[in-house]
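Postdoc handover notes: sequence design on the structure in folder B. Input tokens:
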């Protein structure tokens, strides 16, 4: 039976949350939002399962690198299927891309995020 793709958007800047939400509004997605990695991690554990996480890497309280490592550790401990995580960073520097992949992200998008790039990135991953 068909259900919308359940996506968690973890982003500390409200404008960016609104922008990503607007880009994805007409798509068959169910969107949840968290304003930092700590909130995102809690939501991931309690309000999932999620098909995908869009994770900002630079955030206060708990950054995306830490949150992704925690998510991966929790998935392993709980024997959960690995969720697709796309890193969102303000810097397209090779080091940042590599660091996001090393922390457990599957893919990477640089800000400013473009609508078609985002939709394409999401569609690369099979639904859980």
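Designed sequence:
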């Amino acid at each position: 039976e068909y259900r919308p793709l359940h996506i968690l958007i973890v982003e500390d800047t409200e404008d960016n949350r609104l922008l990503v939400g607007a880009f994805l509004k007409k798509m068959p997605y169910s969107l949840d939002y968290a304003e930092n990695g700590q909130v995102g991690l809690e939501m991931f554990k309690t309000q999932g399962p999620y098909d995908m996480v869009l994770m900002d890497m630079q955030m206060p309280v708990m950054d995306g690198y830490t949150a992704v490592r925690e998510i991966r550790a929790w998935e392993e401990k709980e024997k959960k299927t690995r969720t697709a995580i796309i890193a969102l960073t303000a810097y397209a520097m090779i080091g940042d891309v590599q660091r996001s992949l090393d922390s457990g992200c599957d893919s990477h998008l640089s800000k400013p995020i473009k609508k078609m790039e985002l939709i394409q990135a999401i569609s690369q991953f099979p639904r859980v």
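Context for whoever picks this up: The chain has one domain: 5-123. Don't rerun without checking with the PI first.
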